């Protein structure tokens, strides 16, 4: 019966969008009369088989968007459409099946693994919750997953503290893979790792994407890695999407002044190029509890005009497949 | 000319329940006046312990300074008494830490924390120290300095806290500024602001800087010389240009290969360094990088290589630089035009 339901969901899919977000809002009431609009009216679609990179600074709402997508948080308003069905409207049982196909890998491999559980049981949490395997089969599946992410079968008996940061992140990846998901949100999966280990984890994620037919939402603030792994990139600032395009266009001809500043801020690893002019933004990002009127970036924008304070710029396709929200275009 | 700071054969161990950890092994380097020297390395490479030893911040026990000397303006810092060391540190060496939230006192207004050093080390009166502190707050680019003087750290954003830390460190016009991952906790646009600020201040005051970081981009943009550390040892050192264009240690190759090229047109597979960092409880007899090194030879596990001189001021501790060693075809592609084609094939 479970399989039938899944087939039903699969058949209702019409285009190549695996996940679609329509006018998604996620607000947090932090005090009486104080609301943080973490995700404010965002619409994006993630295509089957692609890696969608989501970039933004702390407080931009990128993690909130990721968590809302996989159902860890209920949206305040808007739709999350997975494989043609609005997930927010599904009954509990079907929703559980959809949730199985959407998994998440967290940033901090120290905080996201229960220190009192053995690695094997951590990985099998999803298997147990969905009653996929039992006994010997369950054990074999754990071993298979451990080897799949570059660890060894005997690691199943150990506890998380016995592993390095990179190895723990591999455990987190194995746990996400255990229920055979189609869509994985990777929420800053490498930010806490050393440089030489980051590349190991990125290569593993790329291998798995090919072998398991996965679609990724890759959230990060390291623009170099996002460019490396993503097909398309979205840039967020204070809860709003500022720009969206394929990864090459974003880096060669960024449209939004915020994207331009963000790219210009990346330190270049070429000592001869180091003496270049850099766009340095003035000031700090404004408080998310009280964002500026009109365009949220206008207080730090070198090109701000009168209209920017009055009207929020519309979301516009300036060039084919290259969207931005800015009054300059 | 005498160096501003000269560290020779420094050895630092830590006593733990698991045994003695060899955190810093035979580290020697110098810093000249007005120079920016970067120390690069991963967690556990010994980069922070090295500078904390210079600052006298290593608690003993569990730390043991096994050997070596640290000469600052001709004085051996390791032989000074606590009181004498404090005098030197307070007026001549400033330090900025990674996390500005935990290194500022949360119960004291920021302005007072800046003025504190001025009163103790420069014998300024309270009023004069306050005036100078407000000037410093302005100098590091924090708006409304008078108002900010009386605010607590929690009222500052991350970038502003780091600016306040810089103001504290620069208050007494130090000769040497030690910055331990000063921008790691900050967002990229704020990191750009703070790096720019440090560069400007350095040009104005001609302060020497030791910059600890794991971000090679930050190194390329700010430093003149680089020291690469691994497993408690210096594995390579040289000018920024030499290190990025003519690296001679497999670990440096690995670091340069494992970061994506932001400017490159197409995607190259990243070449990670396989394995994990060494166990410092029982460091290998030979080169600490040998177990992860693609080019390791028999001698590498047996004996630690000496520092081979590659060029002026460029040293690498790797047996591959011995004249008896074979030529290796490493995948590192230097960013020179003619070499790119070769490198991308490999």
From TrEMBL, chain B:
One GO CC term on file:
plasma membrane
Question: Which residue ranges run through the membrane?
Answer: none
Q: Can you say where in the cell this protein is located? A: Cell membrane
Q: Which domain of life is it from?
A: Bacteria
- Keyword Nucleotide-binding present in the record's keywords: the answer is yes
PANTHER family for the chain: DIPEPTIDE TRANSPORT ATP-BINDING PROTEIN DPPD (PTHR43297:SF2), OLIGOPEPTIDE TRANSPORT ATP-BINDING PROTEIN APPD (PTHR43297)
> Record's family?
Belongs to the ABC transporter superfamily.
Name used for this protein in its record: ABC transporter ATP-binding protein
What species is given as this protein's source?
Planococcus salinus
Organism placement in taxonomy = Bacteria, Bacillati, Bacillota, Bacilli, Bacillales
